[in-house]
Amino acid sequence: MYALSNDRERRLLWLLALTQFTVIMDFMVMMPLGPQIMRAFTITPAQFATAVSAYSWCSGLSGLFAATYVDRFDRRRLLLTIYALFALSNLACALAGSYPLLLIARAFAGITGGVLASVIMTIVSDVIPIARRGTATGIIMTAFSLAAVAGVPAGVLLGAHFGWAAPFALLVVLSVVIWLGGMRIVPSLAQHLIHIPPRLSQVMPELWSLLTQGRHMRAFALTFVMMTSHMLVIPFIAPILVANHGVQPAQLAWIYMAGGVTTFFTSRAVGRLTDRYGSRRTFRTIAALSALPVLFITHLPNMPFVFVVLFFPFFMVAMSGRIIPLQALLTTVPPAASRGAFLSANSAVQALGTGCGAWLGGLMLSSTPNGQIAGYGMVGWTAVLLMATMLIWVGRVKSAPDGAAATDVPEYDASDAVPTAPLAARSTQAASGGS
């Protein structure tokens, strides 16, 4: 564990939150821009869902590949290198002139974004003690709120006045500024490199061992179902509001801003509740409560726009709030030596679930002759059914013996232990001269 001063730890956490902000904005801004992108390229809801999924699927594959090397480099150097490539990917999105080029650019963005998500959470796990990790995760998760409060509304307004590509140009500028801040704030994080890294010939068998260990597989299943349920609903909110309820694209900024302002404050509160009551109990409570706003928004009646704005914070708080205890729980699942590899793999699973949710949601929707979108109610019921399975399954996700939180016991299941060493963890034997 690294020993940072309180001030430096705080600055590092907020720098990581801003980095996460651009990654989340890059993904989120596609959704309210959906109506404009669909018009610009003359595509269907299913094709738009494919553009959203292209990012997620490539993010998942790159995150899975990152599990083979994320523990082999200084966290600082890896973060800055991948973030520079992320800025270039947004430049490619802004310059895309056709639907196929947009798909390629979104795939490139997904490749970089998937690695960044795992690197950020790995740094948090390395630097922050387990007793304060829920609060730290809450700070990182304020990136979601910042994206909703500032990033997405700004992107919507820019898109409405200057075209759909303008938000991606803004992301390029923001990424450059944050990258320069990272050069000054992020310390060298290389303590894990005192361990001798495994040979490349060992990496794939060990990755397979990481993926197939019982404790890990249960965590991956929870992540996948959670994100599938999440993304069945979210990508299509803006297209539904515009096509079915007559909301103007520029008005979407007020909806996301209202939700973002609320979640900016509730994210840290949920983090503190996670530390106090335990990740499982907090997750179950918020996930169960989230069924109500999901069903309401997927069966939204015609109502004045102001009531839509007032309702959206409840939806945003419920959806983002259940992610915080889940992330805190998942950091305890692997042993410390393979935490980076596990979180990279979990980030990949998360992205794959995101892509599958958006893709399946798009398949369940259809366009009516009068230009409206049908099938959203069934999407909502499917999302709620998946959430119900998570309430039961989360109890089967166990922590490693060195990562169990005091508020979540008993957690460790010794039957999940495997004899093979995790990725980047064959250190003790090599350091002592063993064969």
Topology (SSEs and partners):
Blueprint: H1 6-28, H2 34-41, H3 45-66, H4 75-95, H5 99-127, H6 133-162, H7 166-185, H8 200-212, H9 214-233, H10 237-245, H11 252-277, H12 279-289, H13 291-298, H14 305-321, H15 323-330, H16 339-364, E1 366-367, E2 373-374, H17 376-393, H18 428-431
Antiparallel strand pairs: 1-2
Helix pairs in contact: 1-5, 1-6, 1-7, 3-5, 3-16, 4-5, 4-7, 5-16, 6-7, 6-11, 6-15, 9-16, 9-17, 11-12, 11-14, 12-15, 12-17, 13-17
The CATH architecture comes to: Up-down Bundle
CATH homologous superfamily assignment: MFS general substrate transporter like domains
Class based on secondary structure composition and strand pairing: mainly alpha
Count of DSSP-assigned helices: 18
Mean pLDDT: 81
Beta-strand residue fraction: under 5%
Q: Share of helix among residues?
A: over 70%
Question: Would you identify the regions where 5 or more consecutive residues have pLDDT less than 50?
Answer: 409-435
Q: Give me the side-by-side strand order of the main sheet.
A: 1-2
CATH hierarchy, class: Mainly Alpha
If you consult CATH, what is the topology?
Growth Hormone, Chain: A
- Net shape: globular
End-to-end C-alpha gap: 27 Å
Question: What is the number of domains?
Answer: 1
CA-based gyration radius: 21 Å
Count all strands and give the number. 2
The helix-strand sequence is HHHHHHHHHHHHHHHHEEHH
Largest sheet: 2 strands, antiparallel
